[in-house]
């Protein structure tokens, strides 16, 4: 089958460009600091409220996504709900991802493999997976994931049969994607906690498979 690319329009820049220590401050950083100080001065926000929000952001890790994937592997009804209405299904597990952009979960199977990219910047389900890796935001990944997805997968050590369709899904300001990886063989009878240890951040982006037991 031919590889396909699902694309949605973007209307946003990249507010998450890396800042090199000791270099010229990033313009977005300067703008953020100025707005933050103004909001505190006007009494709209407090420094304590900002600190709590930063701590909440730091607490978001791919472990959340791993728990969601594990639940879908053991609960067929939850899996169907997740694929139909990802935000509602995820929030039923106690993960508050509202307000914010929409969320879609796409399922990997033996016949179709999804991988996620944001072609124009770094849109990513941060409330579920935390901070995106640096390579996800790189221009090289953003372009090559579209033009040579099978080659990119191979560089991550992911070898797929030629009969497996590779579908690239494009996260946007309005809709973020997460991959439900293919459940590894040899995990019959495993509970959710055990299964979640096999789900990595990269598998939730779709550049790798879930880990095999004992790997």
How does the SSE layout of this entry go?
Blueprint: E1 4-6, H1 27-41, H2 47-58, H3 62-74, H4 76-84, H5 86-91, E2 102-107, E3 112-117, H6 126-129, H7 134-137, H8 139-147, H9 149-155, E4 165-170, E5 175-180, H10 192-196, H11 201-205
Helix pairs in contact: 3-4, 8-9
Structure overview:
- The protein has 215 residues and is of the alpha/beta class.
- It has two domains: 27-57; 61-205, Nitrile hydratase alpha /Thiocyanate hydrolase gamma (Nitrile Hydratase, Chain A, Alpha-Beta Complex).
- Helices cover 41% and strands 13% of the residues.
- The protein contains eleven helices and five strands; from the N terminus they run βαααααββααααββαα.
- It has helices spanning 27-41, 47-58, 62-74, 76-84, 86-91, 126-129, 134-137, 139-147, 149-155, 192-196, 201-205, and strands at residues 4-6, 102-107, 112-117, 165-170, 175-180.
- It has a three-stranded parallel β-sheet, covered by helices on one side.
- Helix 3 packs across helix 4 (76-84) and helix 8 packs across helix 9 (149-155).
- The radius of gyration is 19 Å and the shape is globular.
- Residues 5-22 have low confidence and may be disordered.
| Cα-to-Cα separation, first versus last residue | 30 Å
Strand content: 5-15%
Provide a count of the helices.
Answer: 11
Gyration radius, in Å? 19 Å
Q: Into which percent range does the helicity of residues fall? A: 40-55%
- Overall CATH architecture of the largest domain: Alpha-Beta Complex
Care to count the β-strands? 5
Strand order of the largest sheet: 1-4-3
């Amino acid at each position: 089958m031919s590889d396909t690319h699902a694309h949605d329009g973007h209307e946003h820049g990249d507010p998450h460009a890396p800042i090199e220590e000791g270099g010229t401050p990033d313009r977005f950083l300067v703008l953020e600091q100025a707005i933050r100080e103004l909001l505190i001065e006007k009494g709209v926000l407090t420094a304590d409220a900002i600190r709590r929000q930063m701590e909440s952001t730091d607490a978001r890790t791919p472990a959340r996504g791993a728990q969601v994937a594990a639940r879908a592997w053991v609960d067929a009804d939850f899996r169907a709900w997740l694929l139909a209405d990802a935000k509602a299904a995820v929030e039923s597990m106690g993960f508050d991802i509202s307000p914010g952009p929409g969320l879609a979960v796409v399922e990997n199977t033996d016949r179709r493999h999804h991988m996620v990219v944001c072609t124009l910047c770094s849109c990513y389900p941060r409330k579920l997976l935390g901070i995106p890796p640096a390579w996800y935001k790189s221009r090289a990944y953003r372009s090559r994931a579209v033009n040579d997805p099978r080659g990119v997968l191979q560089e991550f050590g992911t070898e797929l049969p030629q009969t497996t369709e590779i579908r690239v899904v494009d996260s946007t300001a309005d809709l973020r994607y997460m991959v439900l990886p293919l459940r590894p063989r040899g995990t019959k009878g495993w509970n959710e906690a055990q299964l979640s240890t096999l789900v990595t951040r990269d598998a939730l982006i779709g550049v790798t498979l879930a880990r095999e037991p004992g790997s």
